[in-house]
Amino acid sequence: MKGKTRITALTAYDYPTARLVDESGIDLILVGDSLGPTALGYPSTLPVTLDEMIHAARAVTRGATRALVVGDLPFGAYHESVEQAVRSSIRFVKEGDVAAVKLEGGVERAAAVRAVVDAGVPVMAHVGLRPQAMHQMGGFRVQGKTDEAARRIVEDARAVTEAGAFSVVLEGIPAALGAEITAAVDVPTIGIGAGAECDGQILVFTDVVGLTFGHVPRFVRSYADVGGVVRAALEAYREDVVGGEFPGEAESY
């Protein structure tokens, strides 16, 4: 699809969301470790376990019949060694039924990318702002703002693609740098806060539909207020029960 058509991607963490995303024609579904703060109430992605990711992936792959489903390897599932990365990836495919895995990192993760690909699991890479490295990066800050920092991110993208990654997520970098990397690598780039010149775009499902609690990043565009609709429906249900309006004759046997 690179150079031919824009690639669309969204996250999903359960069966009904996956059904809706898949039926809308989205090309790629990421079972993201954003599961932690969006669905499990964690303060960040760091506490998410591989077991939790596989549990979510099982639900998503039951709901998606056409989109490419990628499983996000969580923090700690591939950081100890190349061998751990291979074991976690194989388990994700066997137990979660995903078609590929995603992992964060550039030059330092190239060996892991190569080993996982050699083991038969396609890999999506992730460079730039890396949420799993939030403590190293001093929080969620735009990366690649200096010439030296930009050069390192370009090197990261080249390293993981040369190692066999079939695509690379670019997060939280200047738009010009996103365009430069997109031109420099042969595989599709999927941007999230990386400008319009990437080969595709990904956002978190809850951000897109207005189900986010708390801060929404600048790079997000919300297309609905599902939270408001659901809240109004629940309040109406409560009022009907308290007021004796539900159940009525139509809902009774």
What does this structure look like?
By secondary structure, the chain is an alpha/beta fold. The protein folds into two domains: 7-222, Alpha-Beta Barrel (TIM Barrel), CATH 3.20.20; 224-253, no CATH class. It is built from nine helices and eight strands. It has helices spanning 15-23, 35-40, 50-63, 82-96, 110-118, 147-162, 175-184, 205-209, 226-242; strands at 7-11, 28-31, 68-72, 100-104, 123-128, 167-171, 189-192, 200-203. Strands 1-2-3-4-5-6-7-8 form an eight-stranded parallel beta barrel, surrounded by six helices. Helix 7 (175-184) links the parallel strand 6 and strand 7. Helix 3 (50-63) runs parallel beside helix 4, helix 4 (82-96) packs across helix 5 and helix 5 packs parallel to helix 6 (147-162). The longest helix is centred in the C-terminal third of the chain and has 17 residues, at 226-242. The protein is globular.
Helix and strand topology:
Elements: E1 7-11, H1 15-23, E2 28-31, H2 35-40, H3 50-63, E3 68-72, H4 82-96, E4 100-104, H5 110-118, E5 123-128, H6 147-162, E6 167-171, H7 175-184, E7 189-192, E8 200-203, H8 205-209, H9 226-242
Parallel strand pairs: 1-2, 1-8, 2-3, 3-4, 4-5, 5-6, 6-7, 7-8
